[in-house]
């Protein structure tokens, strides 16, 4: 098989830079360009090894210069939706880690991808260990009545809770087949102390320097607790999953939501 050519959307961000480095180091892949809303008048971006690649402020403009096999997108809800739409329109496969896109928007993107025969993989988290945590949380939920979820991210993260936390919650409620029981305090001395709440799960979000991504699920039952914890200590933790998704998406002609399906854990 020939090399897979890859462009990075959000290439000037911290995740974009990490993806660019990973693609350059990955056997059988070659980076061919990048897009970023912060590009301005800058026309090139350098890989960690010093190779200059074309840079544009949006994917449509980049595709006029360089048309990759796959675009890897790590931006935000607006950027991710725009990236997937642009890739589908131009017949380019897409792997996106952008979160915050609504279920209705995701469904519409899936319909467009299927109609155009373009492969798209969207996942809230590409760390393989976190995907396994979600799988185990789904299984464990059947056996416990109480659950809390605590997630921590770096101080620059703009949304709370994280997209991964929402994926964990969805998996837990599906595994439970209903809502969890929940303690309702009679007096809340500090408003918000119990965190957010959905389906009986209390959700707590922390934002601070020194964190990348940490997700912890605590189940409670009579006389015992069960804790599932995954910690990404660097952005490199996401790269094996991203590379796996890039290799998979080239053979797809519709949309896959969730890396668990790529790993065969969905069932």
The helix content, as a percent range, equals 25-40%
Overall average pLDDT: 94
Q: Biggest sheet, open or closed, and with what strands and sense?
A: 8 strands, mixed
Number of folding domains? 2
Gap from first CA to last CA: 30 Å
Cα radius of gyration in angstroms: 20 Å
CATH class wording of the largest domain: Alpha Beta
Report the count of strand segments.
Answer: 13
The SSE order reads EHEEEHEHEHEHEHEEEEHEH
CATH H-level homologous superfamily name of the largest domain: NAD(P)-binding Rossmann-like Domain
Overall 3D shape: elongated
Beta-strand fraction estimate? 25-35%
The low-confidence parts are none
Order of strands, widest sheet: 3-4-2-1-5-6-7-13
What structural class is derived from the secondary structure elements? alpha/beta
CATH architecture of the largest domain: 3-Layer(aba) Sandwich
How many individual helices?
8
CATH topology of the largest domain: Rossmann fold
Provide an overview of this structure.
This protein is an alpha/beta fold. It folds into two domains: 4-122 and 235-263, Rossmann fold (3-Layer(aba) Sandwich), CATH 3.40.50.720; 128-232, Dihydrodipicolinate Reductase, domain 2, CATH 3.30.360. The chain is 34% helix and 27% strand. The protein has eight helices and 13 strands. An eight-stranded mixed sheet has the order 3-4-2-1-5-6-7-13, sandwiched between helices. Strand 5, helix 3 (77-90) and strand 6 form a beta-alpha-beta unit. The longest helix has 14 residues, at 77-90. The radius of gyration is 20 Å and the shape is elongated.
């Amino acid at each position: 098989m020939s090399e897979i050519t890859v462009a990075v959307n959000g290439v000037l961000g911290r995740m974009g830079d990490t993806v660019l480095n990973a693609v350059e180091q990955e056997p059988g892949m070659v980076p061919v360009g990048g897009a970023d809303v912060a590009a301005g008048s800058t026309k090139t971006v350098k890989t960690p090894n010093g190779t200059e690649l074309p840079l544009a402020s949006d994917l449509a403009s980049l595709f006029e210069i360089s048309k990759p096999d796959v675009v890897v997108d790590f931006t935000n809800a607006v950027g991710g939706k725009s990236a997937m739409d642009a890739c589908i329109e131009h017949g380019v496969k897409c792997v996106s880690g952008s979160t915050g896109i609504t279920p209705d928007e995701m469904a519409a993107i899936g319909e467009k991808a299927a109609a155009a025969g373009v492969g798209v993989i969207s996942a809230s988290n590409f760390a393989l260990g976190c995907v396994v945590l979600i799988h185990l949380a789904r299984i464990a939920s059947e056996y416990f009545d109480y659950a809390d979820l605590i997630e921590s991210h770096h101080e620059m993260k703009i949304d709370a809770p994280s997209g991964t936390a929402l994926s964990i919650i969805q998996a837990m409620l599906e595994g439970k087949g209903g809502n969890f029981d929940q303690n309702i305090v009679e007096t809340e001395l500090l408003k918000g102390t119990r965190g957010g709440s959905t389906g009986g799960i209390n959700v707590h979000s922390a934002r601070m320097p020194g964190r990348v991504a940490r997700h912890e699920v605590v189940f409670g039952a009579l006389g015992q607790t069960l804790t599932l914890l995954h910690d990404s200590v660097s952005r490199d933790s996401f790269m094996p999953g991203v590379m796996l998704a890039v290799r998979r998406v080239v053979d797809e002609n519709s949309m896959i939501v969730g890396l668990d399906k790529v790993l065969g854990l969905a069932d």
